[in-house]
Amino acid sequence: MSAVDQIIASKLGRLPAPLRVRLPSGKVLGAAQAPAEIEFRETAALGTLARGDLGALAAEIVHGRVEIRGGMRDLMRVVAALVPDDGQAIRPRPWQRLWWSIGSILHHSRSKDAEQIRFHYDISDDFYAIWLDPLRVYSCAYFRDPDMDLAQAQLAKLDHICRKLDLRPGERFVDIGAGWGGLLFHAAEHYGVDAIGITLSRNQFDHVSRMIDRKGLSGRVRIQLCDYRDLRPDQPFDKLASVGMFEHVGRANLPAYFRTLLDLLRPGGLALNHGITLTGLDEAIVGGGLGDFIEKFIFPGGELVHVSHAIRLLSQAGMEMVDTENLRPHYARTLWAWSDGLEAHLAEAEEVLRRGSDRERAARTLRAFRLYLAGCALAFEENWTSLYQILMTRPDAPDAPSGMAGAHADYPFTRDHIYAPRDAGTD
């Protein structure tokens, strides 16, 4: 047995979950009856597992040099054990922070952001439709009732956001990063707002445009192909939501991002930022090269910060945080629902991807998404990453009238408006 084989065999023997490894020679290491198997087709790829470089191993899987068999949940139990003990909190050094800042500036120009968004979101609407809910809500769901399925939980999430923003008929509402329009339409149809959405995805823009016509909402819902930095409304908005877009802004741009939110709101207006954050206070990141895999194959330009850093920046911009909620467990469940949905329709998904691409590229994309969805589910389960909804307000000027005397804000004194039962027929 070679030295590499011995290292792998030793790792397998220490795993709390069984894994079978098939070597290029045909030799099998590990538990014979393991529910998950990794087959190495090239000897060079064995080093990725021996080193614990899971990002490189994932890349080998995407390129077809390593094949996985078995359920993704079984595989992720093994991955959790393979992440290096010190890899769950890799703390950046001062020179790395400087390099990140420079890279953040370079990777988040308007043209670069548009390119990166389209890399991920414009793969194929039909592909996303296979494993998302019917509204294609591509962000953390809200399982208000534990027995909810994905579609019900996504509707609950849309309503949760609308309730937090205390949306009222006739208010001007903007959704920054509107996706396939789920929140736009829910807010307009159930809360009577005048809604505008912006996106950098051509596919999403075209889809929402068609849905506006189909629903007969051209007078109340509009969509723009627009960078958030270039949005120039005729008048400030009453309410604002940014859902799943915060992760694409870039660390260097976050101060300007929050100032933009401030400028878009009227005094007393409310904004909700729904985004993924790091768990480590000092911006420690998950080790094992997993972040590099996400950057290369899934979300180029994605950058995360700790929630405390986000709150500090929004406060410096002049906003006031009035409510913050951690939905991390909800996102783990959401991602597993997406992963299970994709795993149940792998052949259909690959066929859909082939329509706009060659066979090998379609296969690589599918393999990348299988790892991404299950891997992210694991990251939220293990508390390596989190998800926060931050509700903030643009305070009134001291002499401005307020809904609550002396409060200088329109935000209610209690959360009753979020959880109180609504009239029948409004959900």
From TrEMBL:
Keywords annotated in UniProt: Lipid metabolism, Methyltransferase, S-adenosyl-L-methionine, Transferase
Record has S-adenosyl-L-methionine as a keyword: yes
Coiled-coil stretches noted in the UniProt entry, renumbered to this chain: none
Active site, UniProt feature: C376
Key word Membrane present: no
Record InterPro entries: CFA/CMAS, CMAS, SAM-dependent_MTases_sf
GO molecular function, one term: methyltransferase activity
One Pfam assignment: CMAS
BP term (GO), one: lipid biosynthetic process
Family per record: Belongs to the CFA/CMAS family.
UniProt-recorded name of the protein: Methyltransferase domain-containing protein
